[in-house]
Amino acid sequence: MKISIVVPAYNEERLLAQSLAQIRTAGEVLLGRGWELELIVCDNNSTDQTAAIAREAGAQVVLEPVNQISRARNRGADAATGDWLWFIDADSFPSAELFERTAAEIERGQAVAIGTTFQFDDVPWFVRAVAGVWKMWSLVMSHMAGSFVVVESRAFRAVDGFSAEFFAGEEVDLSIRLNRWGKQQTPRRRVVVLSGVPLLTSGRKAHLYSAKENARFLLRALFAPLRTMRRKEDCSIWYDGRR
Questions:
Q1: How far apart are CA 127 and CA 113, in angstroms?
Q2: Strands 190-201 and 92-93, sheet pairing
Q3: Best CA proximity match to 19, nearest among 59, 79, 47
Q4: Up-side HSE of residue 87: CA atoms within 13 Å toward CB?
Q5: Fold for domain 2-203?
Q6: What is the pLDDT of residues 197-214, one digit of tens each?
Q7: Cα–chain-centroid distance for residue 176?
Q8: How far, in whole angstroms, is CA 47 from its chain's centroid?
Q9: Which of 10, 135, 199, 219 is the right S-S partner for 118, CB 3.0 to 4.6 Å?
Q10: Model confidence over 103-146: pLDDT tens digits?
């Protein structure tokens, strides 16, 4: 079994080294199974030291010049040679327990893709409340969070990967298409969202953006989700470069 870990990164010099180090540490449980790992960082046209930090950490670095999360993930996947693709955000810190549970789910053979819940490192109570609502939705609907998306390479390529129509929420669109694809397989397979092993991820957007800015995006996403997620100007909290 070969695992390709793909990390999309746009101006992530502050957190990337720590994230890659934690990925390496958690990855020891996969190496212990006799699995092979490759680590790919997609530099999404960064203007800081992101690419240099990734190379120093021993990652293969590829470039996606168009600043869009879905394109960065797809570019990393294009360079990947693994049986499974593990997309992990550059501001996230997976545990060995999460990797162990994910590997066990792969070995069961019933999952076409695997996600997990997430936990912010330092955010106000109302952000935790919103995250709690997403957690329930994610578990009930089998929608993966973008910070941790694990998908079989064959299935990923069969559904043409992440859609470039989306500037945010592309992981939900992928989850829906993978669930449809999995139902057509024999035996049937599905998207599995794990509970009890949350991914620790940065809550920096709660501090870099005002409550008003965050609320504006959430309201747009709630009342006009497709329109919002397909317009880069409406998803500025991912693209305006604040880090």
A1: 27
A2: antiparallel
A3: 59
A4: 32
A5: Spore Coat Polysaccharide Biosynthesis Protein SpsA; Chain A (3.90.550)
A6: 999 999 888 888 888 888
A7: 15
A8: 22
A9: 199
A10: 999 999 999 999 999 998 887 877 788 888 888 999 999 999 99
Which pair of tokens denotes residue 170? 């592309």
Share of the chain above pLDDT 70, in %: 100
Task: Tell me the two tokens of residue 135.
Answer: 């957690």
Tell me what pLDDT residue 208 has.
84
Domain spans, the chain: 2-203
Reported as a single tens digit per residue, the pLDDT across 140-183 is 999 999 999 999 999 999 999 999 999 999 999 999 999 999 99
Q: Sheet containing 111-120: give its strands across.
A: 60-63, 36-43, 2-9, 84-88, 148-152, 111-120, 190-201, 92-93
The answer, as to whether pTM is greater than 0.90, is yes
